[in-house]
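dumping these here so i dont lose them again. two proteins, back to back, each one seq then structure tokens. dont judge the mess
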Amino acid sequence: MLRFLGREGVDTRHVPVKPGFRTSAVLLGIEPPDRFPLVFYRDRPPDLELTIDDVLAAPLDRTRAFLFTGTGLSREPSRSASLFAAERARRAGAAVLLDIDFRPDQWHDPRAFGVSLRGALPLCDIAIGTESEVKAVVLERAADVAVAHSQIAVAAVLERGPRALVVKRGPGGASVHLPGQAPVVAAPFPVEPVNVLGAGDAFAAGLLYGLVRGWDWHRCARMGNACGAIVVTRHGCANFMPTEREALDFVAARGGF
């Protein structure tokens, strides 16, 4: 992975290496037209071994945007490291984003996910998730995700401190919810999916691209939609993320922002 990032021009000087821990693997099933079951193999994954010392070694004082995930809060030492990193980035004036990223099999109790996420939200400027993930944030009982009203869940997330909640809706596009305002709705880019693995990460990358360039919410979310749409048409994940030029050309060919 470090070699791949290096070939892509990514500065990897601050990527910690955890000897003795295993890079995670994912088994993807492709069942056309719309089933893509995933099995995650995470035996002692190195990403959950990030420490506060790793955070202190990172250049967060020079960061414009910092994103961390709900899965990173699932156990120690990653939980404390993630929260500490969010604190440092916020103090440095960076935009702090939380990808809600609810993966029930990574938690000893799915309700612990809601407890951890609700505690992290006051550190965040922007939260990102699917509708079911947003509902999971308010989870206190096993049935809450199924019965929770999405608008109530959105309000509950915003009440915790973020200035924006971005809800990914797959083929339905995305919506940006701001306190006291009507949602900003970004239309999707219709495509024929062949693999959904990596779509959420691609969306976040496109959204961040727009944010650091000062774009408005609609344009940012459309860029996220475009990056997600490109990835789902390819048989791959990280190695198949679009380049800047590919994403911008994709949008321009489909009517622009």
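---- next one ----
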Amino acid sequence: MATYYVSTSGSNAAAGTSEGAAWLTIDKGMNTVAAGDKVWVKADGNYAELATIDTVGTTTAPIVFEGYTTTTGDGGRATITGSSTRANCVADSIAANTNIYYVFKNFRFTAATGIGFSTDCNVLVFKNCKFDNNGSHGLSCRLVSGELCEFSSNGGSGVLGNSGSQGGSLFIGCKFYSNGATGLSAGSFSSVLFGCIFFSNATDNLWAFGGTNSVCAVINCVFDGDSKDSDIGISMQANAWVGAIINSIFYDCATGISSDVNVGEQLISRNNLVNANTTAYVNAATFTGEVTSAPQFTNEVGGADYTPAAGSPLINAGFDGGS
């Protein structure tokens, strides 16, 4: 298991094994790494390239790419840009549905003419990454998880779960906003969202509950239509699924929660706040502990701060799963 370095002042003829002998491109790293390797990418300039994943990790030895600004581990984001000329910032050359076991930490994928990060492979993890201002989707993927990531101002969806025999999504503390289509289109796959924020997406904030025999759980999330910019908070499809919507907020959308068919009590739905939507529900409901008054966020303008202000009806109104 080796450690490598990439810098905009480096050279692909170098060894890549230290900062002083760093490679020039991220693609060089993707051509070279093997299971268990780590690549540190210095944010000392933008990487104007199409980086292509060519190798795979394993369950116990994933391949990790991590950005930093000055000192490794400082959390600085490195930028991969399509420079408004390349179809993608990152793609892969691996067969579809392959489990590749990659982790990306502290990256920005921006300004591709098509998709910021495009893959039809499985088992990718993104931490503190940003996908923005791409001509089509921010991220197109299958089996993926994200922590503290942002998906914004893309021409298509923030995240598109593309078709295939495998897939699913897990997002923790992520933001999906100002995209030209859906914030997150989970497709036919299972999805779990905890502590995520959606606002100002052009169509649905979340398109989920879509696949036969899939599972969807939405917990402690905010769906802000931002003066009806978003058509629907959550759109549920007419398939055989099980799902739950708990402690979430549906505010200022054209429709808060919409289902193709009347799902009734097969949906676990409790302690949600539903307010200021043109239509609260279509073929759905919050069965227990619903709050219908204004949420009183600290500062919702531009998605700045969705924590409850003093006196908010959100305080002590949620479902305590430990009780």
